[in-house]
Amino acid sequence: MTLFEYIAIAFSLVLSFAIVRCVTGLPYALAKGHYWTHVIWICATLGTCLLEFWTFWFSRDVSWTFGQFLLVLANPAMLNVFALILLPEHMETIDSWEQHYYSVRKKLFTAGIVWTILLVVTTTVVQNMPLISLARSYQFIMLSVFMIGYFSKNRLVHRVIAIIPLLILIPLMAMPADVETFRSEVRAAFEQDHSLSGE
Fold it and tell me: Given this model, what pLDDT does residue 198 score?
């Protein structure tokens, strides 16, 4: 067993808590007093968990340290916190998911902001991704979504921002599994960014 495989087991285990929470909570969220904005966020969280698992493959060539290991585990741990806020214990007692959503709004989007910052730090420290890069678009969009969600109480705004993560996940489904292909695409995008800024 390689060190990457060893770390992947721990990563998958922590991530599985968020996945199980979303899958088991979705029927409750749909059953009574459902609120579509809340349901969309559950689906987006589940999709993000699957994306996290998929993109972890790109870390297979990392020379791991204990600090990097802890940093990598913090990402799925924060997704689990996000899922637990969306779908708390005793879900059967919740009569209005809309009321629940807005009552936990600030906690939920604070968790999202922390998760996005962790994602930025992890991709910088573990994958050596430049801070200014086209490949970081997802992170900056998600940070903006979470900040808008934190500050806005407007229900229409919340409907719109709930759809954004799902729209982002669709093109990311085409992400190649070959790490070298992915890295060369990221490198090409980074070089293009630099050539455009130099003009």
Answer: 54
Instruction: Tell me which DSSP letter residue 177 carries.
Output: S
- Mapped onto helix, strand or coil, the DSSP state of residue 160 is helix
Provide the residue range defining the domain that includes 162. 3-198
- DSSP assignment string, 30-95: HHSS--HHHHHHHHHHHHHHHHHHHHGGGGTT----HHHHHHHHHHHHHHHHHHHHHS-S-GGG-S
Distances (CA, A) of 121 to 24, 65, 77, 90: 31, 15, 15, 34
Look at residues 81, 73, 83 and name the one whose alpha carbon lies nearest to residue 21: 83
How far apart CA 121 and CA 119 sit, in angstroms, is: 5
Number of domains in the chain: 1
Terminal CA-to-CA distance of the chain, rounded, Å?
48
List pLDDT tens digits, range 110-160.
999 999 999 999 999 998 888 887 778 889 999 999 999 999 999 999 999
* Residues 137, 53, 172, 153, Cα dihedral to 10°: -60
Stretches where the chain sits below pLDDT 70 are: 175-187, 189-199
Half-sphere exposure of 46 (CA within 13 A, CB side): 15
Gap between the Cα atoms of 141 and 127, Å rounded: 20
